[in-house]
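Re: the multi-chain job from yesterday

Posting the exact lines I submitted so nobody has to dig through the queue logs.
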Amino acid sequence: MTVEEQVKDIVSKIAHIDKEIMSREATFKEMKADSLDVVQALVAVEETFDIEIPDEEAQKFRNFGDFVAFVEQEVSKKG
Amino acid sequence: MAQSSCKARIAVDAMGGDFAPGEIVKGAARAARAGEAEIILVGQQDVVLAEMERQGIPRDLMPVVHAAEVVNEGEASATAIRKKRQSSIVIGVKLVRSHEADAFISAGSSGAVGAAAATYLGMIEGMERPTIGGGFSSFAPNIVVMDLGVNVDSKPHQLVSFAIAGTVYARTMYGIANPTVGLLSTGSEEGKGNDLVKESFALLRKSGLNFIGNIEGNDILTGRANVIVCDGFIGNVVLKFYESIGDRAKVWLMAKYPWVKGLVGWAFDQVLPIKKLSYEGEDAGIGILWGVDGVVRIAHGACKAEHIVHGINAARKAVAVDIVGNLKREIALLKQQGKLQ
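And the result, structure tokens for all chains:
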């Protein structure tokens, strides 16, 4: 399973979002995820991949794709 | 932290609340001395230890788990728990997750406690959002109004989950075998209410719960339904209106019948503390956070030592009756019967 698929799984399960509408271009708002959903997802992703997503980075995410890209980058750094 | 006995281990947020750490530490010490629970204080160690010393509480009465940060009232709840991972709220919740504590109590930001619990303990399958419910002490202590303010915008299936949690609450905490569930609306007939109520009505009818239909505001205190379901916006407005009744009744009576002013004042303050109508009883100002995978109780920000003692006792009871396991079993049963989506 790719990092993107794993992130999709986590976000979909936490925020009860249909994976079909989870495109890289979609914003959390468009996916009807509220602030608690987003925080739960960020923490779950951090714990799953054992990475840290600083708040200042998280605030830069314009859409789901930015979130996935950041996670991919951090996972690849870990080797 | 090893479990040294079968006593419930209750983690208490020493930094949360209007009167923290003083009143919180005082209440926690009282409960620890009663000996029915092991108390773990969570907070800034130097502050908490100084407070214990000021109150003459021996250090070995309660261990203190250090939490360097404090979530302040007014901080955005969801982001605060990520920004302040060393806060007493996050660390207290994590003690439950790691099974170092059986329950956590906080009088701090209720939004932050809810967010931390949902994030770090996770939600029980079938519960999307944490919810708080409870009775209206004095007039209707054995009802459960759910939700009381955690979810100001709710969806119909979330109201069904509140009804399930309320049913388990009434059964486990009040001993009511088959609690009736009423949906708070503007009329008792089906079809009355807003879209949320109408859609929730249809779901509740086929939920397998003991649903008796809509009930109106004037039924809340009569006990017509054991469990009253509404979104957190309505629930919170109703709760705060109820909390104001005692005080307003006193003001009104003293203005209308000034010749009994002395008597009314004395009677209400000494014999019948009517202005405290909503705060008497064991559950006063403190509630279980339902739906999260662990026992978490949120206390009123203005709570005093006696409320913390009550809260610790109620948390002990919640652990003893296994509210989390009961809720999981109820949801699993309803799913098995095909009554839940």
